[in-house]
Structures
1.
Amino acid sequence: MCGIVGYTGTRDAAGVVLDGLVHLAYRGYDSAGMAVADDDGNLFLRKAAGKLDNLLQLVGSEPVRGSRGIGHTRWATHGPPSAANAHPHADGAGEIVVVHNGIVENYAELKARLAANGHAFLSETDSEVIPHLIQELLADGAPFEEAVRLAAGRIHGAHAIACMHAKEPGLIVAARRGNAGGVAVGAGTGEAFIASDLPALIPHTSRVLFMEPEELVIVRPEGFELRTMEGRRASRSVHYVDVPRSILERGAYKHFTLKEIHEQPDAAQRALHERIAFESDEVALSELPLSKAEMAALNRVLFIGMGTSLHAGQVGARYVETLARTPASFEIAAEFSHRDPALDERTLVIGITQSGETADTLHALREARAQGARTACITNAPGSEATRAAECALLVHAGAEVGVASTKTMVSSMVTAYLIACALGQGRGTLSGERAAKRVDDIARLPALLGASLEMADASVEAIAERCFKSRSFLFIGRGLLEPIAREGALKMKETSYIHADGLSAAEMKHGPIALIGGDTPVVALALRNSLYPKMLNAVAQVRARGGPVIAVATEGSKEVTELADDVIWTPETPSLLQPVVATVPVQLLAYRTADLLGNDIDQPRNLAKSVTVE
Ligand code: AGP
């Protein structure tokens, strides 16, 4: 939550910082701000409440000049979204500026002490204590980088900060403690960059250093120096990140979310890339550090995650149970780590987190690992905290997902979970011969099936959304493997359109929720052809009998559905294990089109942020 950027070099820092903020806006958009310094010791601060456009306009009307700058895009925790609460925050003399991601848990105590020493505060944030703390340490004689290190050490709570002093030309100091989101440092030629996340760096450099917790980095145009929080020098190799710039461009699409929905066939292909050996019909997951004996010894696989990633995990658990014949379940990561779960080395805990930063999921992964369970994460973020929290990381390679609502990363996560299930099945001897060949053939066809699903949904969803976008509530129902997709459809509808929606097993309807049925509550029924299809038809008939409008998502050619439902969104004939992936497309598009008709800011829905780094 919150995005920080920094630049030092010879270019117009305001342009680089603002461009970085544009690419990180998905991390929070309650307010934004930046500070730019010139070589004469002048510091210019610009801050605006609301979305980034407000800051862009402000800087347009009140331009700033300088070759060094830091910026911030905020998801409010302490203090409402306002210009005063926007970062950067400055010390009393206006010479030290700080952008902060995280929470200063002991800010009240620090603030009271600083105020007693004569420091005046201008905001209601916890973050504002940081520049004052640095100023106090400077006054005691510490050099700037040392003052930042000591100040970071006095803050309780995970955080990432970037700091500048007006009178320290070329210098930016960043610190990272605990996990409040990452900090990546990009190396250029005669210039350097800092960002919470790769999208802000990709346009400028492919040489990136990911800071680890408890580290400080001293950044100058000519290079950077890494230190531990104890002040010792540290070194680590720089990563080469190879991400095409087009991934950051919206192209002809109205929203990134729509572009990312349409990228799903490619995203699935990338998740599969080099992980299937067709000659042997085997899935090869070199990242999974389990020997055949260890796989055979597993007695439980548990998927954890939050929101959309949890839904992907719910599907993943079904894959493992079916393909690897191992008891598998799923759980909300935030609940898992607070209930003292019984774990041992025969349990494999798989955390799904596209951002690799979700505090709840990281906490749960660490907890599981500490208790001796085997751990893995499925993530779209190389170098992220999740890749360190778990024993091994399976990258989904979906490419940057800019829309705050997860779309293609969910599809890629389900594909990766399928591959894990196949690998476990092979290792445990439950998936071999023709069955293995069939599963491998099926998944290889998935990108094409997703393409067909997109085409079919595109043909009908717009007209359906036009008929129901004024509804006050939606229900999404499914059975078996499609139940998690009902939940996902409801989540997408809620977060993009702000219409109340609930997703549940169709079997639950008659135990209560059917009381909600009336003319104003469309029911989206995931009625694809599979073993539970007849039961779904019964559920649809029961809704229709009570006057509820039904939008069915069905397998092409299913006549029975046409007779029962008001509208049908077709999907291609798909092997039942892959139906949840294929059925994700129409529910995403229905939510998207509904939200678009309502005129919502779909890429940045209100109150949300792409990575949730606070518990
Ligand atoms: C998805 O559309 C949501 N915005 C949200 O539920 C998200 O899936 C959840 O916060 C988990 O994020 P993660 O995958 O980055 O861990």
2.
Amino acid sequence: MKLVFATNNQHKLEEISRLLDGKYDIVSLNAIGCHEDIPEDHDTLQGNALQKARYIQEHYGYDCFADDTGLEIEALGNRPGVYSARYAGPAKDSIANMQKVLEEMADTDHRQACFRTVIALILNGEEHLFEGRVDGSILRAPQGEAGFGYDPIFQPEGYTVSFAEMDIDEKNRISHRGRATQKLYEFLSQHDSLEDKR
Ligand code: IMP
């Protein structure tokens, strides 16, 4: 089954293709010839995920899903949240984003944070939402080279390493996007078995 994932982020494509177990043919925006910047101007994860999925469905006609993720830091009033990608400016620079967070948190021991992902799926004209969350804490300095975004400064609860020090399968098992994708996968599996019985 072919499903468009509304992203060109190679890390995310790889993560999600692994999670969906090779069962679905996950296709990127480049692969369908979509090279424009899809608008995402809502102030909630859910609003942005739906906006991206609807855009692809309306302009390209494919069944598709889109995700939106935010890092919510308690000491910063849940910032950067929905503004995580551009926290330090429009360049979407991960190093600058992490630096800004570390500077803002230099004087606090309150390090509690979570990543939240919302996935919006449009299948046969119907919309479905799936949410995943992982709790953890913000480190005092970046650790590790793997992953992307804020991975080097996020340590998931129950671990002594950052996301950027885990291998991709280990991160996937517990991550925000991994958990949301697991729900998407269960939904698609159920949907497939219903279709098979028809
Ligand atoms: P997006 O909505 O998935 O594009 O995520 C917004 C921003 O959150 C990204 O630009 C990253 O900076 C950050 N982000 C999303 N997912 C992750 C992750 O798995 N690890 C670290 N940072 C992430």
3.
Amino acid sequence: MHIFLIGFMGSGKSSLGVALAKSLNYEFLDLDELITEQNGDTCANLFNLKGEDFFRKKEKLALETVMKMDKKLIISCGGGTPCFYDNLEKMKENGVVIYLKVSLPELTRRLSGNNANRPLLTGTEPEQLPEKIENLLFEREQFYKQANYIIEGDTMNLDRIINVLKYSGKPI
Ligand code: S3P
């Protein structure tokens, strides 16, 4: 069974994923890294040079590769992964989906630095950033909220996630 971590950019999917994988004896996989590997270019480049539709198709293909992997994986998804095609449905069929829900002010704080590798935010003027994040989060929450579990908080606690999984009734 795979465990998929979803949530907005900056919600801590990768750093928590690595820690969670260590604690639960799973392998960690970063979907953005797999996309990079499969296409020989960074996600930001694929996105900027070939366009979002192209990137989303490659993202879907990477997710399909992950579904076929016969090992226990904690997968850190891209912020947009559950919002396109039937990706979210497929993730739920193949494992447990956890939404890391971080508040808007905290996301804005975390995303206020250099966003060169975040194509959806690159070039946004600092004063426009909060509104940009708010709008995108508003569009995406309808998908994020369909996760099997929602872990909410600006300081994520590994034990909380482990407890949720323990009592999920699913084999971990
Ligand atoms: C995206 C988030 C990125 C990456 C791509 C698109 C998004 O991943 O997949 O730039 O649509 O929110 P992170 O959430 O890991 O930054």
